[in-house]
Amino acid sequence: MSERTSDDDLARLTSNIAEELRAQSALRDLGLSEVTIEEVASAIAVNIDYAFTVAWSPRWVKPGDAHYGMEPDSESPTGENHFVECLQCQWVCASNPSRRDAEQKYGRHLQREHTSPS
């Protein structure tokens, strides 16, 4: 099981900006190089962070729920790598071959970290 603390908000913002720049470069045939995309994304993120309070808070996740995702993974038995992130503490568990595995690990995390002793 791979567990970690998620990327900080500035890194996530930078990554999100870079993803959007890649998409816009492709859609508009801008021809931006990867180096340019990374440098511009970093500059924009730092500028935003300097003047605004930024916190990653996905609106598609209901309060109290976890953030789930999946990426293709040729080394996984299912061909998929599912991850789960606790939005309360930013704990992330990756390397799950199925969503069900991720959900079970999240349930154990909730019991262990976010349930007060009786």
Per DSSP, the total helix count is 3
| SSE order | EHHEEEH
Strand order of the largest sheet: 1-4-3-2
The span between the termini is: 28 Å
Categorize the overall geometry.
Answer: flat
- Main structural class: alpha+beta
| Average pLDDT reading | 90
Rg of Cα set: 17 Å
Give the number of DSSP strands.
4
Helix content: 40-55%
Most strands sheet: 4 strands, antiparallel
Low-pLDDT segments, ≥5 res: none
Strand content: 15-25%
Task: Walk me through the structure.
The protein is of the alpha+beta class and 118 residues long. The protein contains three helices and four strands; from the N terminus they run E-H-H-E-E-E-H. A four-stranded antiparallel β-sheet has the order 1-4-3-2, covered by helices on one side. Helix 1 (9-27) crosses helix 2 (34-51). The radius of gyration is 17 Å and the shape is flat.
Give a short summary of the structure.
The chain is 45% helix and 19% strand. The protein is α+β, with helices and mostly antiparallel strands.
